[in-house]
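Model it.
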Amino acid sequence: MAGFIGFFTSSIGRKVVMATTGLFLISFLIVHCAVNALIFFNDGGKTFNIGAHFMGTNPVIRTIEIVLIIGFLVHIIQGLMIWRQNRKARPINYAVRKASQNSTWYSRSMALLGTLLLLFLIIHTSNFWIPNRINQFIYGEELPLYEMMLEKFRNPLQVFLYLFGCFLMFWHLLHGFKSAFQSLGMNHSKYNSAIIFSGAAFSYIVPFVMAMMPVAIYCGWIGE
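Modeled.
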């Protein structure tokens, strides 16, 4: 037991946990993006509401939500611990001198990007997920999420916040996707190029689709 705990509190163990939870959260992003993309049917929210109702009432999905929350917390905590370890392990002058030669700016800024992304996540969940779950718990009814989206994204400040959040997500995924596979030992010349390509494609497509949702509503392409 002590060896098990020791591994997961070690530098390598923390990276494995970070990678595993990161890939789990990536799988959630795929589902979340797909459900949100149903709004582009532009049928008055009928198709979107079907998807949102399924996600909000299916017992399996509701159970996975609990695992998802735990995954987010573990990912955040481990990320902060890795950042702290790295700060202690590298002398400041050496890190400043060598950083730009050995890594990209966004890989060196994962702690900052992750923190800003967390703040965006708090705003996002407080706009939709949290009030909907509270309403379900108290009254046993779902909120009209489609109408709530139309109202929120007709506000230019909300649109800006979501675009900024998607921008942060792009950079976080661009490094995190590839890094997760490397941390799990999946680093081989035969499939590295496929991982890099898949990570880059995912990092572009998912944030773009998510960003187009508030833009389309604000511009009147949806909901008019």
